[in-house]
Amino acid sequence: MTQNSYSLAELVIAACAEVWRDNGEVMATGIGPLPRIGAGLAKLSFSPAIQTTDGEVWYTSEPVGPGKRNSEPEYEGIANYDRVFSALWSGRRHALVGPVQIDRFGQANISVIGDHKKPKAAMLGARGFPGNSISHPNSFFFPNHNKRAFVEGEVDFVCMAGYNPARYRNGQPPKGLDLRRIITNLCVMDFGGPDHQIRVISLHPGVTFEEVQDNTGFPLAKIADEIPVTPAPTAEQLELIAKIDPNNVRATVFKDNPAGDRRAA
Amino acid sequence: MLDKRMTVDDIVGQLSDGMTIGIGGWATRRKPMALIRAIARSNLKDLTLMAGYGGMDIGMLAATGKIRKLVFAFASLDHFPLEPHFRNARQAGAFEVLELDEGMYHWGLRAGAMKLPFLPTRVGIGTDIINQSGFDFKFVKSPYEDGEEFVAMPALVPDVALIHAHRSDERGNLLNLSVDPIFDELLVRAAGKSYATVEKIVTTAELDMKKNSRYNLVERTMINGVAEAPLGAHPSSAAPDYQLDLKHIKTYVESAASPEAWAEYKAKFIDVSEADYQTAIGGEEAVKQLPVPIY
Questions:
Q1: What does the domain layout of chain B look like in residue ranges?
Q2: Among B293, B206, B269, which Cα is nearest to B64's?
Q3: Which of B32, B40, B31, B78 is nearest to B62 (CA)?
Q4: Nearest CA of chain B to the CA of A3: how many Å?
Q5: What are the CA-CA distances from residue A116 to residues B151, B178, B272 (Å)?
Q6: Which fold has domain B5-99+158-284?
Q7: What is the biggest distance separating any 2 CA atoms in chain A, rounded to whole angstroms?
């Protein structure tokens, strides 16, 4: 492995970590292996104040990666269910979650595909997504950037509120609605276009804007005519990632664990 | 002498067709599964199930056709994210649903517990939760200067709450020894009547209440009956007494693959006495040795 070699998963982890930069002292929730390792990376590097859990109920001093553990982590607090709602309604949380569908407004769905009364596919149910969405910052991870995930119209069942004026009785979303970033296998986006239009802020190495647009069901904005390349993880970041994820769960997220720079393959 | 001891079947005997039944626990934690299995075996029908944080409780009662309406926020087996029997039933349009956010469900129980008709919340705003045909959500405006408009989350008031705890004395003084009690206390307070299964019924002295005060879920005046049901949460966990049984949950998940697979599961694990159930799952020794799961 040369010094510059990194996997797509590691590139995504580094991009996930960035969502928690300059967040202050908040609960950082990363759902799924890469967002979770990303939260750990942020905590061990530029955002030491964020608070992460063991994935069950404890806040831990050090980030806990996915999979088997060699020793019991040091617990620094308890995140029991009641307290999680108190924390999230206070706004002191930034969650990075993985919905099934998202639309141009940032509305997201994990409930059903098809009609809610008799769905084609029943999934989890809304879980805490509605409350999360209007209470604290949220970011998203999609392992497969395609038109089934980035849908043309609205998502089939809006679990997370978004920037859709038609959904609000006064045309305005609650103040807590704060959608930050979307990280995918192709790029990083934010909601910084006109009227919160979703905007590509960096392309993963070797990916073009056209490829991203072709795989998205709605028009995307660009941060600049020349879109930057998603920064590769540094050698120090790769070391920290390996420390957080000794089980190498990150290698199982994308099929065949591709290189971060597809041109290097 | 106050004695609220009952059997699991006595508790199920208190239920009737069309009732609204609230289930405690969370996904794979402290689900009152001995009671769920007994309901699945019974002739009960047309139940409205309030299982906000659902797992096999929803799945098993869905697969046995007991549910007329489901009030929930999710159905999941956590390590197996999708509840397969719930999915099958939903995709067949088998029952009506009212889908809520987890926090809204908590808020509805809290309103019920406080005997209020509703509690205001921002949760639900901007989503399809408040646009469901099954319930006409109303809004309420702050009477103070801010004038903000909120969703009026209605009280959730089950006829009966069913929970699983660790210890009780015969008067219904409960200990829930879990690190996280979830919202079982609010569920009990919201419900008309509440019944608990417990791992063990002990003497009041053995509860060691002075030491265990933080684990005393709710005052006994809220508990109508307690039944001793060792391993009564299996295959969900009743930690620290025992952990969830991932191997059994996998068998349960696979039983959704076909009607034949379900019939086989049902014959082996549901249409049997609790004693035979315990033998079928390898007995108390095996369950007590289940490993702590990794999250």
A1: 5-99+158-284, 118-154
A2: B269
A3: B40
A4: 32
A5: 21, 35, 35
A6: Glutaconate Coenzyme A-transferase (3.40.1080)
A7: 56
* Rounded mean pLDDT, B33-40: 98
Whether residue A231 lies within 8 A of chain B, CB to CB, comes out as no
Q: Which amino acid is at B273?
A: S
- ipTM of the prediction: 0.96
Within the 31-60 window of chain A, which residues sit less than 8 Å (CB to CB) from chain B? 54-57
| pTM attached to this predicted model | 0.97
Question: Is residue B265 predicted with pLDDT exceeding 90?
Answer: yes
- What is the reported pLDDT for A1? 45
Q: Verify whether the Cβ–Cβ distance A127 to B102 is below 8 Å.
A: yes
The pair of structure tokens assigned to A53 is: 């859990």
Contacts of B74 in chain A (CB under 8 A): 124-127
Q: Which residues of A148-173 are buried (b: 16+ CB within 10 A; e: fewer)?
A: ebbbeebbbbbbbbbbbeebbeeeeb
Distance CA B150, CA B156 (A): 18
Q: What is the pLDDT of residue B134?
A: 85
SS3 A15: helix
Note whether A75 contacts B: Cβ–Cβ < 8 A.
no
Domains of chain A, earliest start first: 8-260 (3.40.1080.10)
B-chain CB neighbours of A117 within 8 Å are 93, 97, 133
The sign one gets for the Cα dihedral A198, A200, A204, A206 is: positive
pLDDT at A4: 65
The string of pLDDT tens digits covering residues A7-47 is 999 999 999 999 999 999 999 999 999 999 999 999 999 99
